[in-house]
Design brief:
By secondary structure, the protein is an alpha+beta fold. The protein is 33% helix and 24% strand.
Length: 235
Amino acid sequence: MIDILSICQEAADMTAAARPDDLFDKAVQHNAVFLSVAKTELDSLMRFGDWQALIKEASFCTINGKTFYAFDEIVFDFYALVHNTIYVKDGLKKVIGALTSEDFMHEKYFSNSGVEIAFKVENNGFRFLNNPGDGIQIVFMYRSNAVCIDAKTLEPKSVLSKNTDVPIFDAYLVKLGIIWRFLKRSGLDYEEEYNEYQKELKKRFGLETAPKDICLAKSEFNLDGNHAVQIVFKG
């Protein structure tokens, strides 16, 4: 793992700039400039799309009489909901092992408790249209707002606060982003560096992006007199 200070120092070497020795020493201008462009780059990458490293699963249990559950009350690092990933877990909370993608999707969408509930997503949260009662577990996927992790605790963080913080994103991509942003901030030509960054960004995002939604086409039919469900998976 390469920390943010080391990445900024490598970027400084590539731009013939003075190496930062402490990004949080505000008394030294080039330290402050590198911290600023590093924060901008990491925030830009976080907002770019559904990176695999940012996708997490969360859940909450309903409380009788409570009809609104804000995302930031459920998870501290919420940025955006991953659509088509909300489901109701059955009351047994079964422990399951390794599954094929088909088994996982069947468990996710059809192994439910059968409780009739209705809710919609609004105002950055879940709003139930009826009283769901106690103990119904709602599970969903979301994109985290984390941009780095603490090198010692491995805790995800939404903003840089230490020289030793490690970016969640590919170190080489972050370095390229810092280089062109530093050149732009300094009033220098950055077209070549920017184009190289864009190429690497598309390549890395293509490799690390979250899996696409699986479309389920459900149809019922009888097989030897028994009821069956046919599920068709489309990538």
